[in-house]
Specification:
The chain has eight helices and nine strands. The protein has three domains: 62 residues; 70 residues, 2-Layer Sandwich (GMP Synthetase, Chain A, domain 3), CATH 3.30.300; 83 residues, no CATH class. The chain is elongated, with a radius of gyration of 27 Å. Helix 1 crosses helix 2 and helix 3 runs parallel beside helix 4. Pfam families: Baseplate_J_C, Baseplate_J_M.
């Protein structure tokens, strides 16, 4: 899922100097309209000493207002504000879950209608359970009413049998259809992507790699076919000017992920 850029709000990003200059301009205009001599407003003058601290306060309040305004929107909310959005959707933050991961779950919930117990519903329900990292569901693997859900733990490793049993119990209580449900530890399908990047002058390799990892991980989630050509567009994050030929699991062909497996990314970046 692409990250939404925060909107530019220049009216809420004035410096104290900009605000004070507007005050000084207004005082000069008013004096001219009244036929008076404009007051001295340079640094060290009485009006400067009185009004510049006020301009600083207004500037700081503008920054706080911008922050508060953006917290009302799910794509940019953080911390306790993000938890409040979670209450609206009926989802709680899992133990140790970072803002980005929780926000992704909330956005996915916001974009997906609650279903009646199909494959996508079970995957979403499983990922909302504390301790679950990824989930892949397969319909009709054993019979016409079967749903098999393969899960990983929060570290992306195959879930323990205890976690699988816990998740199966919770999903059984939530399901709306009489499915023959089983929850099992997922198999891991390693996706290795190697690429050489051309970075801009001020780019930091660690930061670039982190952003690329986020984009590719989002792309891989729940995908049965990994398209070689589509991966290329995910290398372009802030700081990347170009890249040379890259490989996907050692080659340049599309890759098929087995239905009972969850993709785990191994990204190798050189410059």
């Amino acid at each position: 899922m692409a990250t939404l850029k925060k909107p530019d709000m220049p009216i809420l990003r004035e410096t104290a100097d900009q605000i004070y200059q507007r005050m000084a301009n207004r005082m000069a205009l008013l004096a001219e309209q009244q036929g008076d001599t404009p007051p001295a407003t340079e640094e060290g003058e009485i009006f400067y000493d009185l009004l510049y601290p006020l301009a600083q306060e207004i500037s700081e309040q503008q920054q706080l207002l911008e922050y508060a305004f953006l917290q009302g929107f799910l794509p940019w909310a953080d911390d306790e504000y993000l938890d409040a959005h979670g209450m609206f959707f009926g989802l709680k933050r899992n133990d140790g879950e970072e803002n980005d991961a929780f926000r992704s779950r909330l956005l996915e919930r916001a974009r997906t209608e609650e279903g009646d117990g199909r494959r996508g519903d079970y995957e979403r329900w499983a990922r909302d359970i504390n301790g679950v990292g990824g989930a892949v569901a397969i319909e009709k693997a054993r019979n016409d009413l079967s749903i098999d859900v393969y899960i990983t733990d929060a570290n992306g490793q195959p879930a323990s049998l205890e976690l699988a049993e816990q998740v199966e119990k919770e999903l059984s209580e939530k399901r709306r259809a009489l499915h023959d449900l089983k929850v099992l530890p997922a198999n891991i399908f390693e996706v290795e992507i190697a690429v050489q990047l051309v970075l801009g002058k001020d780019a930091v390799l660690a930061t670039v790699k982190e952003e690329i990892t986020k984009q590719i991980t989002t792309y891989l989630k729940g995908r049965s076919t990994i398209v070689y050509q589509q991966i290329g567009s995910l290398f372009f994050v802030n700081g990347v000017e170009d890249f040379t030929q890259y490989t996907l699991n050692g080659g340049t062909s599309n890759v098929i992920v087995e239905g009972d497996a969850v993709s785990i990314l191994r990204l190798v970046v050189t410059t």
